[in-house]
Amino acid sequence: MEAAHTYWISETAGVLDLPGPATLDRQRRIWWLAGQFRARPGVREVVPGMNNLTVELEAPIPDPETLLEALLDAWHRSEDATVAGRRFEIPVQYGGPDLDEVSRHTGLSRREIVRLHSGAQYTVFFLGFLPGFAYLGGMDRRLATPRRKVPRAAVPAGSVAIGGEQTGIFPLASPGGWQIIGATTLKLFDPGREPQSLLMPGDIVRFVQVGEPG
Questions:
Q1: What is the helix, strand, coil percentage profile of the chain, to 5?
Q2: pTM
Q3: What percent of the chain has pLDDT over 90?
Q4: Does the domain made of 5-77 have the CATH classification 3.40.50.300?
Q5: Where are the domains of the chain?
Q6: Which DSSP category does 141 fall into?
Q7: Would you say the CATH fold of 87-209 matches that of 5-77?
Q8: May I ask the CATH class of domain 87-209?
Q9: CB of 50 within 8 A of CB of 22?
Q10: What is the pLDDT of residues 57-94, one digit of tens each?
Q11: CA torsion 71→73→75→77, rounded to 10°?
Q12: 3-state class of 69 per DSSP?
């Protein structure tokens, strides 16, 4: 059983935190915990992260340690928990301004990069950075490429990119240092939609190549 510790970050928000590295099994257990605490009375918001879970209460409670104890107890009960994610196919027009940089860093051809990137099955580990930005685990390690030394002031919405050993899709136009290798026309985040984010933790994603790399 992995060691876990808990602490308060405000008078109404407690955190369960795990040491690295992040694994798919740990993330599944965190997603299960998130579902358990969302159903508890007095909880305002639950935020699953990478190797951590934050629970925010609607108001301070008389005995703060009860929440931390409940988090640890639920973590110990989560070992056999399962979460069924939805499946998505994301159409991608590969190309983009950094495909050649990824090729230079990895020693792979542009076609090999596309083949490996579109041939993997990814899992949404958590959402962060931007509303609806899904951090995807499962990328072939041969594609791992460091972020740009100088981030871009504006990365277009729909950009498919690599950052270290992870890949993701920019749901909104934003500054960013990830290496852009393609783009999708799917709308990943829509404030008028419920849920607002197309992808949620635990979902399974495959990228489908559209056309030839640009």
A1: 25, 35, 45
A2: 0.75
A3: 69
A4: no
A5: 5-77, 87-209
A6: G
A7: no
A8: mainly beta
A9: yes
A10: 999 888 888 999 999 999 998 887 777 789 999 999 99
A11: -150
A12: helix
Q: Work out the number of other CB atoms within 10 angstroms of the CB of residue 9.
A: 10
Task: Supply the DSSP symbol for 155.
Answer: E
Among the ranges given (34-38, 124-128, 135-139), the one the predictor scored with the smallest mean pLDDT = 124-128
Asked if 155 and 129 count as a contact pair (C-beta separation under 8 A), the reply is: no
Candidate ranges 53-62, 104-113, 122-131; pick with highest mean pLDDT: 104-113
Residue type at position 33: L
- Non-local CB neighbours of 18 within 8 Å, separated by 6+ positions: 2, 3, 4, 26, 51, 52
Confidence of residue 23 (pLDDT cuts 50, 70, 90): confident
137: tokens are 């685990």
Pick the residue with more confidence: 202 or 95? 95
Q: What does the DSSP assignment read for 23-64? A: -HHHHHHHHHHHHHHHTSTTEEEEEEETTEEEEEESS--S-T
